[in-house]
């Protein structure tokens, strides 16, 4: 992929007028985009859809199952949920390294096998130690599966862009939409299956991954053209010296921290305005519908007008403005339907900002990674950002409990993504690195 960026920029400058037509939101244009994709990209995007259906058919209902059916104490439920997050997000970098070392196919297959085993184990687990073991297996399965799929989608998107089909962010946006559809459909499936019992939901989730495993065994090539295995050591040391990539991780981490406020700051605001958290489900549904309906047109619009840095900057500033809307409204003390309007504005601005930030960040990683180490870098993007969220969430919780004037915490939260714009690397370029071993 040497010289890739210069060729991509040349392609961008030579875009035809048809590429600039802002029709990215029509079903016809989406279908044309799908038809333009390689069979491998279609497989990976459908994999993301199935992955989230299986995952969200089980995990949203885990806390209640642990507290009621298993009888765990509240602190232990929180510990188990946190352990699942750590075994997944925190170990993404390990999964990414394994992808670079062994290739996409074996790591994806191993992740599917572990996820099947984890869900089946969780369905039958009754003792606390068994539940903890199953949850760790489920989390580590995602730490294998997701970096493999995400890194190959990003690499294929760059090649798709290089071939003159359009901005790579369009492919990554379609990948995000597929994931969001799965995240929306999964809980609906899980809710229906819970009418039987939690074990049935777990086994159904495992069955989804049996289908994913079969699909990859049948359709995933043994060797993906252009993807080489990296045998040399020292990739982590080079990554930690890659200041431009770490800056991207920090900026992306501020987005994830902001997104986490859907579960931390927003519920408090909704409870204050409405007297309960009942409207939260509608606000979450609003976010999901926006992503499904608007992600592709927003990405097409941004791809025609903004480079990756400007797209991320615009997204971070929109997210900051969402916090500012709530901060500006808090002194008025509105309640009822009027009091929920600032919260709805926050959700809309956060979601539109997410539509700009996420595809751009994932599209930027191949430009900043060493040759042959895209898996490691894609995994590190999630792991480093997850550490930022872990530390930032603790600080945010303290900030919300300090008794400061109501607008102050929201103003501080608005400042974080706004200041992160300054962290973004100034130019898109691939650093000099070790060539991948064949």
From TrEMBL:
Gene Ontology terms, MF aspect: transmembrane transporter activity
Record's InterPro entries? Answer: MFS, MFS_dom, MFS_trans_sf, MFS_Transporters
GO cellular component terms listed in the entry, alphabetical order: plasma membrane
Q: Key word Transferase present in the record?
A: no
UniProt xrefs under Pfam families: MFS_1
Q: Which keywords fit this entry according to its UniProt record?
A: Cell membrane, Membrane, Transmembrane, Transmembrane helix, Transport
Entry's localization field: Cell membrane
Residues forming the Major facilitator superfamily (MFS) profile domain are 1-432
Q: Where is the signal peptide?
A: none
Transmembrane stretches, start-end: 40-59, 65-86, 107-124, 130-150, 171-192, 198-219, 245-266, 278-299, 311-329, 341-362, 374-395, 407-424
User: Where would one find coiled-coil regions in this protein?
Assistant: none
KW Nucleotidyltransferase (keyword) present: no
The protein's superkingdom reads Bacteria
Q: What does the record say about its membrane topology?
A: Multi-pass membrane protein
* Name listed for the protein in its UniProt record: Multidrug resistance protein MdtH
Gene name as annotated: mdtH_5
